[in-house]
Design goal:
The termini are far apart. A hairpin with a 2-residue loop joins strand 11 and strand 12. The longest helix is centred in the middle third of the chain and has 39 residues. The chain folds into 2 domains: 356 residues, no CATH class; 147 residues, no CATH class. It is built from 23 helices and 12 strands. With 603 residues, it is of the alpha+beta class. Helix 6 runs antiparallel to helix 7. It is elongated and about 80 Å long. It has a 4-stranded mixed beta sheet with strand order 7-10-12-11.
């Protein structure tokens, strides 16, 4: 039984499996089992638990799912909204809008609510990433189902993917990458450029709507790989012959994707509330060189306290392969190189260059070693000012390295099939030593504060007019996401809309024209933030009272609400200090259901 020809033209050896469908089933079951294992803490109670280290991003994605479904069913713009950050609104095209997910899963969101839909997508993302890579490897790159399974499962549950499973529905959508890789290489087949270009254009449009930054990285990696591969002496003639069809196909891709993405791209680069670059410090969000040899926290090694704290936060362990795996990857490369024909060496060269370039760029503008800034200027420091590049976090470029390692592992297992048992046993031991410490452990979860009955029962509708503004205390930000959780509940449970000031989003207002999280602070939200953080009532003067009331008029707030339990995504908040501060500004509150309520008279 022969497998399909390799996408890059390397000979694909015959498979040894007499029951390939059984192997497919085993890999599929392992992929699903690992996905359920990683997310098991949330499955205990999808509506009552949240990811401990990144509850704010989870709340944002739940809101995006609720808003996207609401926009679809109510004929609203899914990429720009005035429901948050009143009166300016938010450009979701420059945020992570996941519009395809919101639309496809809208029925589920209305049926079970945004938290459960979030969990379903997160789990499916992990499993689908493994299955998509397994399909690409087993049908196009290697002849052994075992080799394909090893490579695919490593890529899908590599340290970076498990790290981003801490609430990132965009970055865990790794199933898009093998489809894009297949789509690009399929263009080189004779007579397939038109149909292939249309299919790739559709894939690009979907990828942009789910993970635009990931699409950008994938495009850069493919361009670099193809350039190195095509320039290799063993591939030049083949590359020249395939170039006309490839260019025609990419032209069709650009046309199809351009038509589908015309409005999102206009919003992204020229629409209201846009910005250029993010407000994140590239020095903070860059890889530590020592991090490549470190172990991640959510792994067996991390469970026995071999993990490190070299990442800026637990969601950005984008390398963290461990020294044994790095040594194994080098050993795999050397073995494959020695056994390879010139044509295969072209592929290995392109893979090696791609991994090294992206690893170097992920180190950011200046090198860090074991938490210390060495001051050494690096290539990313020369590129950071370029458009689009300045919106990327350099540490995430290391995510490109994991698929390269996965491919090397798959090629090596495939190559060892005919070796003597003693040789295979030695390599099996090496794989076990390198990979077992990286087996993922479940995400940390904790109980989330319940949405008040004031919201779930719809009582709020008696105090806020249609299209009116309600604000929780403290105001909604990334560290205090309650407002968007409440709004997501209302939008997905048939209640009418209410708007909120502020919100968790990226918008203008950062240094040098870059973006920032949330709006520019005003007096009222600054005082409330101070009270919640410190547990102390700030000094309230008549002047500050007037400024706060002016802020509420600016936002058009009808009701100010304080729940008995306020969720702080990064730290605990003092509800009593918040209530006393609001009382000093707005007067005594009214107790309604399970919240304290201050009504704000209109002008």
């Amino acid at each position: 039984m022969q497998s399909s020809p390799s996408l890059v033209g390397d000979p694909s050896p015959p498979t040894r499996s007499a029951r390939p469908h059984r192997a497919d089933l085993v890999v599929g079951l392992l992929a699903v089992a690992l996905a359920l294992w990683v997310t098991s803490g949330l499955w205990r109670d999808p509506n009552g638990r949240a990811i401990t280290v990144n509850a704010s991003d989870q709340a944002l994605f739940e809101w995006l799912l609720a808003f996207g479904g609401h926009a679809l069913t109510h004929g609203q713009d899914p990429l720009f909204t005035h429901l948050i950050n009143v009166p300016d609104g938010v450009n979701l095209a420059v945020n992570t809008s996941i519009t395809v997910y919101a639309a496809v899963f809208a029925p589920l969101t209305y049926l079970v609510g945004p938290p459960a839909t979030f969990l379903v997508i997160l789990t499916l993302n992990l499993a689908a990433t493994a299955l998509a890579w397994y399909w690409l490897l087993s049908r196009h790159l290697v002849g052994s189902r075992l080799a394909a399974g090893v490579g695919a499962l490593f890529i899908a549950y590599s340290p970076g993917m498990v790290s981003h499973a801490n609430a990132h529905l965009n970055w865990t959508a790794g199933w898009l990458v093998p489809l894009l890789v297949w789509g690009v290489f399929a263009l080189r087949r004779p007579g397939r450029w038109l149909r292939g270009g249309v299919v790739l254009g559709l894939l690009v449009a979907v990828a942009f709507s789910i993970a635009a930054e990931g699409l950008f990285f994938t495009a850069l990696a493919l361009a670099l790989f193809l350039a190195v591969w095509s320039l290799h002496p063993a591939r030049r003639a083949e590359a020249r012959a395939a170039l006309p069809g490839l260019l025609r196909g990419l032209g069709v891709t650009a046309l199809v994707a351009g038509v589908l993405l015309a409005y999102p791209l206009w919003l992204h680069f020229a629409g209201p509330q846009r910005f250029h670059g993010t407000g994140f410090d590239p020095m903070i969000h860059s890889e530590d060189l020592a991090g490549f040899g470190a172990f991640p926290r959510r792994s067996l090694a991390g469970a026995v306290d071999w993990g490190t704290r070299l990442a800026p936060n637990p969601t950005e362990e984008n390398s963290f392969f461990g020294v044994p795996l790095l040594l194994l990857a080098v050993g795999c490369f050397v073995l494959l190189w020695r056994r390879a024909a010139p044509a295969r060496r072209a592929t290995l060269t392109a893979l090696g260059v791609t991994a090294l370039v992206f690893a170097a760029l992920s180190l950011g503008p200046r090198a860090k070693w074991d938490g210390r800034n060495t001051g050494q200027l690096l290539p990313f420091g020369l590129l950071d000012g370029l458009p689009v590049v300045n919106a990327a976090l350099p540490s995430r470029l290391a995510l490109v390295v994991a698929p390269v390692i996965g491919l090397l592992l798959a090629y090596t297992v495939d190559s060892l099939r005919t070796d003597p048992p003693r040789v295979r046993a030695a390599w099996t031991a090496g794989f076990a030593v390198a990979l077992l410490p990286l087996l993922p452990t479940p995400l940390l979860t904790s109980a989330r504060e319940p949405i008040p009955a004031f919201i779930t029962a719809g009582t709020w509708q008696r105090y806020v007019p249609p299209g009116g503004v309600l604000t929780p205390l403290p105001l909604t930000l990334d560290v205090t996401p309650d407002g968007q959780r409440w709004q997501a509940y209302a939008l997905s449970h048939g209640q009418r809309e209410f708007r909120i000031p502020a919100g968790f989003f990226l918008g203008p207002g950062g240094p040098d024209g870059r973006g920032k999280i949330g709006p520019v602070p005003r007096t009222f939200d600054t005082l409330m933030d101070q009270a919640g953080r410190t547990g102390l009532v700030p000094i309230i003067t008549e002047g500050s009272v007037q400024l706060c009331r002016a802020d509420l008029r600016y936002w058009g707030v009808s009701a100010v609400v304080l729940a008995d339990r306020v969720h702080g995504a990064k730290y605990d908040l003092d509800e009593d200090a918040l209530r006393r501060t609001a009382t000093a500004i707005l007067g005594p509150p009214e107790r309604v259901d399970d919240v304290w309520l201050w009504t704000v008279p209109g002008d």
